[in-house]
Design a protein that fits this description.
Blueprint: H1 3-38, E1 43-49, E2 57-64, E3 69-77, E4 84-87, H2 96-100, H3 112-137
Antiparallel strand pairs: 1-2, 2-3, 3-4
Amino acid sequence: MNATATTIVLALAAAWLLQLFFSYFQMRRFYRRISELRRGGNLVSIGMSGSAWRRRQYAVLVVDPATNRVRHLEQLSGWTVLAVLRPVPGLQGRTVEELLDENAAWPPHIGRKLAAAVQNAAQHIVEFQNKGKEVSDAGEESSPVEPALG
């Protein structure tokens, strides 16, 4: 193997290791923020829209389990491993059912992909709540459920 090919292979390996390093720290920041949002007994759900071929959009929905109303919403915003969770105003106080309504009006700053990600997160919350009801309706002793979804 000549020196140029060796240099290219080493450069690609170094870039790959650097990407893994940055991905690790992005993951730690993300899950640290999710842990902060869970405090106080909140239901936290992560929704996604898009595909591997189109840009993905992630939303983190925080719901009060007593009222089933949105307390907080954040979206993963940024470029690749530099993306961070940023608050999205405008949906606080809405119920989960309002978010799932296909005919509901969304604030103008919330795009179609973000709305789909929020609806995906809301659907996870509904499934989680229904699963808890099935266990309690069956008369089985339910174990404490961690108030987080993903």
